[in-house]
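Morning F.,

Quick status update on the modeling queue. The single chain you submitted on Monday has been processed. Sequence for confirmation:
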Amino acid sequence: MRAVSMRSFKSDTRSENITSKSSSDDILENADFDEFLQATCKKFQCPTAIVVGRETVREPPPKSSKQRQESRSKRGAAMDVLPTPSTQNLSYLNPFDEKYLLVMAIYDTLNHLIEILLSKYNDQVIPRVLMQLIALKVPHTRHLTRFTIRQCRIDLYTIYELNKILVLSNITDICLDHSYVKEGIYDVLLSQKSSLRNLSLSRCYINDQVCERIAARLRRSEPAEASLLTLNLSSNQITDEGMKHLGEALRDNRHLRYLNVSDNQISDVGAQYVFDVLQEFLLTQEEIFDRRKCYVQYLKKKTELYELYLSKFEEENSKRLAAKRSLTGRPRLSPKKDKVSIRRDSRHSTSSILSVKARSMVLEILGPFQHPFSPAMAVVKDGDLYCIGNFTLCYLNLRYNNLTYKSVDALLTVVKHQKIYRTENQCGLVSVLIEGNHVPEDCIEYALIHKEMMRSVTRRKLPGDKSVPSSR
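Structure tokens below.
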């Protein structure tokens, strides 16, 4: 069930319904988002007719255990696109006959703003002042997690302002489906550290040059590498050259779980660029140097923290002993040991305890050394250093491209390799969608691929298995 209400505003109309309290900035910050946006659009003379809608999304009643089990059995292993908002058709909310920009504010049952939705506006470019006004309210909406601009005209200023909103908020999902930017600067959204987890850029006319800039933001040295989990680039103009850049990014990216490049212009060559990094590949001199550099920095930081905490614990211990002596006086000496030997043993024992305590504190703070090419992920063959592959990417959508049987055979090689090297903490590929290509409708490779992927999910023997290696 959904409760929907409407508030409309036209910038060139002097409405008498806005109360005097809306002119106060303090009160506007405490107002609901739809009230705030309506009032500030009038105050700052937004050049576009704005309609602010409000929707409350009610959670469905909890399912029984039997219903949950049936739901899991029917649910697919991979999603085709990022989750879409609950509002699909908003034409019945139109209060005018003229064109307008509809801004939907979606709340949960606790009256928390969870999503901002702008959709189906092609009359003009979304005004920059509107995005700036939204940015004023965003820091006060900590439950806002999704921002959707679907099928709208946007420009580079929209992207820049949206990037500012990302930095100021807890937004995890950005959807810009069917919203074309001539300059193609979608990579700006990945340029700064933020909470962004899911990015959907379907039907945005993204070519290989734009894909190269997006892929560059997914490298290990970039802020987005540590946060972005899903990337949807479906229905664009990406060719094998763009897939090459994505494959290079996946060499050291260890956070991206889901990649959708369906309905593009990718052939077997482009798919192979990604398949190559999902299995064993040779490390370059730059990658080896980067690993050594990061390990030296890790050891340096570890040593600095150890010395800091050791001195801190020694100072605390000396203060505690001084306070104890002031209360109890000098301790009596044992007849079997002289004063010097007792002091030596006491100092050695205390120093060992404090050292262990400091090392434990440092390990708890830093953890073990983490790197895509750490010794746990590398093997030496014929004097060369290889990475065993990217085991983080789980879902890969290659539907409706130009793949042939060659890609099916290459995919089987990948899952067999991941079967050998997969450990308990690694998953590897769970689902690869290749329907709609120039591939056979049914072949024995499909069954083998599905079986290996199911084994990686269930972590147990499947019917017909003799043995299932769980580690290298």
